Amino acid sequence: MKIRDRLLLAAEHQFAEQGALDTTLTQIRDAAGASVGALYHHFPDKADLYRQVWAHALTDYQQHFWVAVAESAGAREGVTAGVREHLRWVSENRDRAKILISARPPGVQDSDSNREFMTNAWRWWRTHAGYGAVRDLPFDLVYALWLGPAQEYSRQWLAGDMRTAPIEVARELADAAWLTLRATDH
Dihedral through CA 171, CA 175, CA 181, CA 185, nearest 10? Predict the structure, then answer.
């Protein structure tokens, strides 16, 4: 594994366990087995390293989520697949999930990959709303109703307040999302 990748993985783990403020570059460097020079060659400061770790976690999550939704046969399958994939991803990627529920660094929301993801997700939604399968709602509300309960459950689980892994409640939360978002005549 390349040193840059080792630094990113070490930083991901340290940020997830201790938070961005309490994690030191020395801890990350030691965990990665990297020199001071190697660290600063790839990352000018802790803020940039945190931004890159956060952006990497977001991209990984979005890729998995989008594949699950985009490959669905219809609106119901897409809504429920998105919730199930969200909860599977959180269950299997605890460190990355902890990163994503922490403070978003500046600039990540404006990245090309995030804009592309949001455009694709909105286009997918509008397609299904267009033929009446799902409710015609503003995207911010769609997002909250679709993934809000799954995200809240995930936050509680990551904090240690829930014992049952998110993947084990996926069916119930996926069905609830569909019942909330489906058009009333479907």
Answer: 150
